[in-house]
Amino acid sequence: MWQAETRIDLNAVRGNVARMRATTTAEIMAVVKGDGYGHGATRSALAALAGGATWLGVCSIDEALALRADGITAPVLAWLLTPGADFDAAVANDIDVSVSDVGLLAEARDAARRAGRPVRAHLKVDTGLARGGATAAQWPQLVEAAAKAQADESVEVVGCWSHFVHADSPRHRTTDDQIDAFSAALTVAERGGVRPRYRHLANSAATLTRPDTHFDLVRPGLACYGLSPIAGETFGLTPAMTARARVALVKRVPAGQGVSYAHTYHATRETTLALVPIGYADGVPRAASNVGPVQLGGVRRRISGRVCMDQFIIDCGDDPVAAGDVVTLFGSGADGAPTADDWAAAIDTINYEIVTRFGSLRAPLVFDELLP
Ligand SMILES: *Cc1c(COP(=O)(O)O)cnc(C)c1O
Fold first, then answer.
1. Is 33 annotated in the active site?
2. CA 167 – ligand 1 centroid, Å
3. Are residues 306 and 187 both part of a single domain?
4. Could you tell me if 142 and 98 lie in one domain?
5. Has 251 been annotated as catalytic?
6. Which atom of ligand 1 approaches the CA of 203 most closely?
7. N or C: which end of the chain has fewer CB within 10 A?
């Protein structure tokens, strides 16, 4: 019997992607970086592909290679590469790479020449985030180098792309500025002889709210897993991850009993404490001490006292809880249990971070298999 479990509803992932699929004419790149935001990269990728995604997005070549090793043949883009990245493996495994500067482009070309076939590249332009991508000043030079590489067939320019600043509020005016900057960069590329098949800009929030950002391909991550990028709006998505644990031990303690390290919580009256066998080594943030929401015995409660490395405690009052009872930390919300959004609000972070942490529960992920 499991003691703690992170369960992934693959049907929800497929359904969420299908929902987005139905609202755009662009192709969908399901983003499965960070082990699929904690949901398992390969299984989530397969569910997303079943839902109509045609591309997968990851950060590193290693993440892309792991998908290939699991037999996934769909196009994969790896977008965060450092000098010395394994471009040979990328070319050999048909992995698309993002290139932001001429130095990395030269490395990619070398690998293509060694392999005797072109490397598939997406040129990244920085439209304001000031993270990856060539600045507007560097862009013409990158385009020129890419056009040359295209001419000698060391590079196939598959895409041009960029990423939003206000990823969680796509109606922000900077989004319009970035669309303009992106369009200007595309014009420069076209004049330089680079006409990529895929122009892409939109993350989840823009995919759900800004059709004018869709171009040829959208790159939702969070929404594939059923979480909303915009607080207070659900977009009809279904959260795929449920994190649960079983009560290990219950005990009665007297009024005034201090609970867990440093006694940051005290029982106000005689009460029942339930010990839950997961802690920060399993993904439960230590910041959830005294605030993390849970459901036990059909009742919403809060963590009492410090979250430890392997365990935490819940003050259950006089409720009839027993060892072995299931504690839900978060799930789809359908049964009244907390959601990843509730956890994010409780510890002042974003739902992205909650699910990504809980993917690392000590127990392996459990998958609700895709139905036919
Ligand atoms: C993570 C990421 C995405 C997906 O973002 P969501 O907000 O999860 O949809 C898209 N593009 C890039 C470049 C990313 O790093």
1. yes
2. 8
3. no
4. yes
5. no
6. 9
7. C
Instruction: Give me the amino acid identity at 357.
Output: R
Mean pLDDT of 39-56: 98
- What is the residue type of 314? I
Q: How many angstroms separate the CA atoms of 280 and 366, rounded?
A: 20
Name the domain boundary from 197, 225, 253.
225
Rounded distance between C-alpha atoms, residue 196 and residue 198, angstroms: 5
CA 200–ligand 1 middle distance (angstroms): 11
Domain boundary among 225, 251, 276: 225
Sign of CA pseudo-dihedral 329, 333, 334, 336: positive
pLDDT at residue 167 above 70? no
What's the token pair of residue 108?
């990619």
User: The domain containing residue 42 runs over which residues?
Assistant: 10-225
Q: How confident is the model at residue 169 (pLDDT cuts 50, 70, 90)?
A: confident
Using the structure block, give the residue that is written with the tokens 């998908």. 67
State pLDDT tens for residues 128-160. Answer: 999 999 999 999 999 999 999 999 999 999 999
- Give the β-pairing of 249-253 and 271-276: antiparallel
